[in-house]
Amino acid sequence: MFARSAARSLATPARNFSSSAARQSKVTVLGAGGGIGQPLSLLLKLNPYVTELSLYDIRGAPGVAADVSHVDTKSEVHGYPADKLDQALEGTDVVVIPAGVPRKPGMTRDDLFNTNASIVRDLAAAIARVAPKAKVLVISNPVNSTVPIVSAVFEKAGVYDPAHIFGVTTLDVVRAQRFLAGVAGTDPKDTPVTVVGGHSGATIVPLLSQTPHGKGVTGEVYKKLVHRIQFGGDEVVQAKDGAGSATLSMAYAGARFTGDLLRAINGEKGVVTPTFVKSPLFADQGIDFFSSNVELGPNGVAKIHPLGQLSKEEEELLAACLPELKKNIEKGKKFVQQS
Fold first, then answer.
1. CB 57 within 8 A of CB 95
2. Is 204 annotated as a binding residue?
3. pLDDT at residue 12 greater than cutoff 70
4. CATH number of the domain enclosing 28
5. Which parts of the sequence belong to the Lactate/malate dehydrogenase N-terminal domain (predicted)?
6. Together in a domain, 146 and 10
7. Residue 36 annotated as binding?
8. Whole-number Å distance between alpha carbons of 116 and 146
9. Please, what is the average pLDDT of the chain?
10. Rounded CA gap, 142 and 140, in Å?
11. Is 129 one of the annotated binding-site residues?
12. Domain interval for residue 274
């Protein structure tokens, strides 16, 4: 009962907007057998906008699909083994990519690059060939580099639409809301926080000054809160003691963002959330991907919002973010060029 009510909150239809009128939406999860992919698939099965759920992995996807298919919601579920990637992608509207290896103690997101970059590149090539108009949601880390990889692969294939490719940074938003609520003594759902920049360490910039409950947080409490938001993933990696990284919270965040996008695809207006996309905000500094508040629409990215007024502390965080983010983006682009 709890799982269903929680998951439905990820994609609650707008007031006066009937989910019974929703368009047919096929969602494909690439990496459905993994630690993120399995709970993500379960949460997407509960989403009323998902009419067909296609699960793919190099191992285990048919079993996950059989299991998830028994959940009593209307969507159909199909699982595909390693040699059926094209079939998994045929006719899909949205592709979510949690595929890759997890972080282990002592590893940074950058340490994951060599393995995950190859996985994401090859999956992106298949999507560009089979489902070039699909919206692509990248969870595989390091997102600061993997989103430019997917974009470059699509560009090489001649099917690139920057409105269709997203880096899922929602976990940073989820953590910021939860951690600020803990400091302020509020309910996380009433404690919105915009998080901009990228999706690793110092590139994560929470704009606490732009939310009423964050304005009063100062001094050492502010510093500790920002550090926890930026490096919250380390808490999970250390607590799991070598057994993995943030999988359940990432699955929740991935399902939440997918739900936001599906609501927008189905015509809901005013769906705005941070996400890492091709962006003009810092393009003059050679940084052409950036996470900020983005209004979603039927075609994906509808409008990229400016950052708004920043505090002195946030200006300093942004100054630390930009050079690191630029390096991450360039690393992704260079990988594709040399492939």
1. no
2. no
3. no
4. 3.40.50.720
5. 26-167
6. yes
7. yes
8. 8
9. 92
10. 6
11. no
12. 170-338
CA distance 40 to 98: 9
pTM: 0.92
Rounded to an integer, what distance in angstroms lies between the CA atom of residue 179 and that of residue 212? 15
> In terms of domains, do 88 and 76 share one?
yes
Same domain, 102 and 205: no
For the chain, how many structural domains are there in total?
A: 2
- Domain termination site, one of 113, 147, 167: 167
Is residue 163 domain-shared with residue 193, that is, in the same domain?
no
The b/e string for 285-306 (b: 16+ C-beta within 10 A; e otherwise) is: eebbbbbbbbebbeebbeebee
Same domain, 253 and 157: no
Do the annotations mark residue 141 as ligand-binding?
yes
d(CA 123, CA 111): 20
Question: Same domain, yes or no, for 299 and 245?
Answer: yes
Q: Tell me the catalytic residues.
A: 199
Domain identity same for 185 and 98? no
Asked if residue 189 has pLDDT above 70, the reply is yes
| Tokens, residue 155 | 């560009």
CA dihedral 92, 255, 49, 45 (to 10 degrees): 90
Q: What is the CATH number of the domain that holds 307?
A: 3.90.110.10
Return the pLDDT at 3. Answer: 37
